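Journal club side-thread
Mid-discussion, someone asked how the predicted structure for our own chain would compare to the paper's figures. Pasting it here so we can look after the session.
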Amino acid sequence: MANWIELNSGLDIEKIKEASFGKPVLIFKHSTSCSISSAAKDRLERGWDDLNSFDEVYYLDLLRHRDISNALAAEFDVRHESPQVLVIKDGVCVYHESHFGIRSKEIATAV
């Protein structure tokens, strides 16, 4: 099972950027009321072994923290989507995907 770190403060964005200079960081933006988002989360969890290059994998509940999602979009210059995966490396977003494009093997090869 996945070991998600809950992203629940805008202050966490700076921590994520700093941590990404050691190893890439994964952020999964999830809408708890959306079946597509639930399917994407399930696919990530089933492919967890593919994501072993990430020490930190964050989970953002979009219904509770849309403000943080907006801050991520602004900070990393990506359009907000849901569900969405961002890979942060060396302080910048090097990969992002949404909806049914979210696949653990593709995320792993992007890093």
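Post-session note: Residues 1 and 59 are 14 Å apart (CA to CA).
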